[in-house]
């Protein structure tokens, strides 16, 4: 039976976010879920588009990428009940995130017991996005447990560990060798948050990177000198800047001081809900290092659900309004913000351009993970994950792998 001919789609009358500018009345061609160069398919072969989509003057941007999301819609990625539980949970979140323009994400596990990692990680495999399965799963973000006990935040302090045996302790705790953690395999773990002041961590960074894992520093009381050592060894991101780290002091600015380092300044995740970080602090970070900003939700199970009691890993938490706190001590425990809200807030808080706000949720996280050839841009060869936005940066349409997702579809 002959294979079905590829469908060619043409998007017209759009304002494309490309080359760090807005290109008016541009055209986008999509074939087999990819953005293509029209010369390759249209002009050379004379093939006409099967479908023409009129963007009606809307902004067209790459789909948003969330590199730190603990859960949503009642799902907590750090929980384990049974195989179907994690599979169904990933499906539910993947579908639900498309409503907010998030087309790729890293399911994030907070500090957990080794048996949780061993059970859950084999199921957080990279998975392509489509309108049936939802947003693309890029792999896992492991936030802990190799973090400082002085900066545990909402994590269960009983799960926090040191690494006296270096990289071997990471393998033992995560079971990386059993979950595709070697470079060149179907690697499940894409990003790890560690504290460089924890025993054995600093000397493990280079080996972690050799496996193809991106290393971020956070949940740490590291001095600025220690933080710079981690950067020199290859760490290139700060996890939720300003939160769970030594606060800025003019004599030793700690991890925050990396915004002014003479070494390559790292990317930094920032929770742009106006609760975790004051808008003025967000603007200070942006003014210091605009090309490093990566918007993250740090969302947890209560995102998309009404106020009430939930859990974050083993920790009981309570959602009240837009805030989630640990019931026992009142500490902040993740957020309930969505990626599109983060983009709008970032523009409002910093006064940045539309382009900069969008790139903080698209290009920058893709660059961090080394996937900018397929994500975070509208160049030929990139996946056709797109959002149409109005001038207030509200989602009008969302496409994943070139197909439009019905925003009114009730998946939650």
TrEMBL record:
Which GO molecular function entries does the Swiss-Prot or TrEMBL record give?
metal ion binding; N-acetylglucosamine-6-phosphate deacetylase activity
InterPro entries per record: Amidohydro-rel, GlcNAc_6-P_deAcase, Metal-dep_hydrolase_composite, Metal_Hydrolase
Checking Pfam families in the record gives: Amidohydro_1
This protein is called what?
N-acetylglucosamine-6-phosphate deacetylase
What the record notes about the co-factor is:
Binds 1 divalent metal cation per subunit.
Q: Could you say which enzyme class this protein belongs to?
A: hydrolase
Binding positions for substrate per the UniProt entry: 154, 243-244, 251, 276, 332-334
Question: Which superkingdom does the taxonomy of this entry point to?
Answer: Eukaryota
Positions bound to Zn(2+): 143, 219, 240
CDD domains for this protein:
NagA
Catalysed transformations (reactions): N-acetyl-D-glucosamine 6-phosphate + H2O = D-glucosamine 6-phosphate + acetate
Q: Which family is this sequence assigned to?
A: Belongs to the metallo-dependent hydrolases superfamily. NagA family.
- Annotated EC: 3.5.1.25
Task: List each copy of the Amidohydrolase-related domain by range.
Answer: 60-402
- Which UniProt keywords are given for this protein, alphabetically ordered? Carbohydrate metabolism, Hydrolase, Metal-binding
Q: Where is the active site?
A: 298 (proton donor/acceptor)
Annotated GO biological process: N-acetylglucosamine catabolic process
Its cofactor is:
a divalent metal cation
């Amino acid at each position: 039976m002959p294979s079905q001919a590829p469908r060619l789609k043409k998007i017209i009358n759009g304002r494309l976010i490309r080359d760090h500018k807005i290109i008016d009345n541009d055209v986008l061609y999509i074939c087999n879920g990819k953005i293509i160069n029209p010369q390759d398919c249209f002009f050379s072969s004379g093939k006409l588009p099967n479908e023409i989509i009129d963007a009606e003057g809307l902004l067209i941007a790459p789909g948003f990428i969330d590199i730190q999301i603990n859960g949503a819609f009642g799902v907590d990625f750090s929980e384990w009940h049974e195989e179907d539980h994690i599979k169904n949970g990933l499906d539910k979140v993947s579908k639900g995130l498309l409503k907010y323009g998030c087309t790729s994400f890293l399911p994030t596990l907070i500090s957990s017991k080794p048996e949780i990692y061993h059970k859950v990680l084999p199921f957080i495999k990279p998975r392509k996005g489509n309108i049936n399965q939802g947003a693309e799963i890029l792999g896992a973000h492991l936030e802990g447990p190799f973090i400082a006990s002085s900066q545990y935040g909402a994590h269960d302090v009983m799960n926090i560990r040191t690494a006296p045996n270096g990289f071997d302790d990471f393998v033992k705790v995560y079971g990386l060798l059993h979950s595709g953690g070697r470079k060149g395999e179907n690697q499940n773990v894409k990003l790890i948050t560690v504290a460089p002041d924890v025993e054995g961590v600093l000397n493990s960074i280079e080996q972690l990177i050799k496996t193809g894992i991106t290393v971020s520093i956070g949940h740490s009381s590291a001095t600025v000198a220690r933080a710079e050592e981690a950067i020199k060894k290859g760490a290139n991101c700060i996890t939720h800047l300003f939160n769970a780290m030594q606060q800025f002091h003019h004599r030793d600015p700690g991890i925050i001081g990396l915004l002014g380092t003479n070494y390559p300044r790292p990317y930094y995740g920032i929770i742009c809900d106006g609760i975790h970080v004051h808008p003025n602090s967000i603007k200070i970070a942006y003014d210091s290092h605009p090309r490093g900003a990566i918007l993250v939700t740090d969302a947890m199970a209560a995102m998309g659900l009404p106020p009430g009691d939930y859990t974050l890993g083993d920790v009981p938490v309570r959602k009240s309004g837009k805030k989630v706190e640990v019931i026992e001590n009142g500490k902040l425990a993740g957020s309930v913000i969505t990626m599109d809200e983060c983009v709008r807030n970032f523009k409002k808080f910093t006064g940045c351009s539309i382009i900069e706000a969008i790139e903080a949720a698209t290009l920058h996280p893709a660059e961090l993970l080394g996937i900018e050839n397929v994500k975070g841009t509208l160049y030929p060869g990139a996946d056709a994950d797109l959002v149409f936005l109005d001038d207030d940066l509200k989602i009008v349409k969302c496409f994943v792998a070139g197909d439009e997702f019905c925003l009114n579809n009730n998946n939650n």
